[in-house]
Design a protein that fits this description.
The protein is of the alpha+beta class. The chain folds into two domains: 46 residues; 174 residues, Jelly Rolls (Sandwich), CATH 2.60.120. It is built from three helices and 14 strands. The strands form two sheets. Strands 1, 3, 4, 5, 8, 9, 10, 11, 12, 13 and 14 form an eleven-stranded antiparallel β-sheet that branches. It has a three-stranded antiparallel β-sheet with strand order 2-6-7, with no helix packed on it. Helix 1 packs antiparallel against helix 3. It starts with a helix and ends with a helix.
Length: 227
């Protein structure tokens, strides 16, 4: 191979290594389990150690399209809840105000399934999504079937096209058609998401090291030819 050809090959390897380091990704499923009792707080943060994905949960209330960030978020062995100013129950409910649990991720994800606990036949939830990626949640609809045995809700099937992003919400709205109960109330026991994570930089080191070694060998070969 000519000197130009060898240099070009080495340069290509270097560029390939740098490209791998910056663009390589891998897909994984991240499961968040909300079952560790902790003190009420203005927000909770959960980090998946394997991928580095961070989820922040904050409390809010909603009325129509208006969303107000207020209250505190709670976590018991049964899951997450919201404690709003007019409510004494650590649940996502509609007692006094319509509670909303806001989920903010550090990177885009696709929601897979939601686990709800402490449900009954009258319970439902409203799903919110920041579809425009402008930091504002929009109510995308009501789901009335949370009282099945597993408590597992397939979000992608219920709200196709609206489950990918960084900001979501799950809320409880007073149901005027329910005469035997005064509000919806439940806890969020878990959430599963699909996440495409970047490959850590060290994964590209072997290729990058080989390219650097190739450049060094070519330099030595050229010096010998000159000598």
């Amino acid at each position: 191979m000519s000197k130009i050809g060898r240099a070009s090959s080495a340069a290509f390897l270097v560029l390939a290594a740098l490209g791998l380091a910056s663009t390589a990704t891998y897909a994984s499923t991240v499961n968040f389990n909300f079952s560790t009792a902790q003190a009420d707080a203005a927000s909770y943060q959960f980090t998946d150690v394997a991928t580095g994905l961070v989820l922040t949960v904050t409390p809010a209330t909603f009325l129509g399209a208006a969303i107000t960030n207020q209250g505190s978020v709670t976590e018991t062995g049964a899951g997450l809840g919201v404690l709003s100013p007019a409510d004494g129950q650590p649940l996502v409910d509609a007692a006094g105000l319509n509670d909303l649990a806001v989920f903010s991720f550090s990177a885009p994800v696709t929601l897979s399934s939601l686990t709800l606990n402490n449900t009954d036949p009258h319970d439902s939830f409203r799903f919110f999504h920041d579809s425009d990626n402008n930091g504002s949640l929009v109510d995308f609809g009501l789901y009335n079937g949370v009282n099945h045995p597993s408590g597992l809700v397939a979000l992608g099937t219920l709200f196709p096209g609206y489950v990918t992003g960084k900001l979501f919400g799950f809320g409880a709205l007073l149901d005027p058609s329910c005469h035997s109960c005064n509000n919806n109330e439940w806890r969020i026991g878990g959430l599963s998401v699909a996440y495409t994570a970047p490959v850590p930089l060290p994964a590209a080191f072997p290729l990058f090291g080989g390219a650097v070694a190739g450049v060094a060998l070519i330099g030595r070969w050229r010096k010998r030819r000159v000598a």
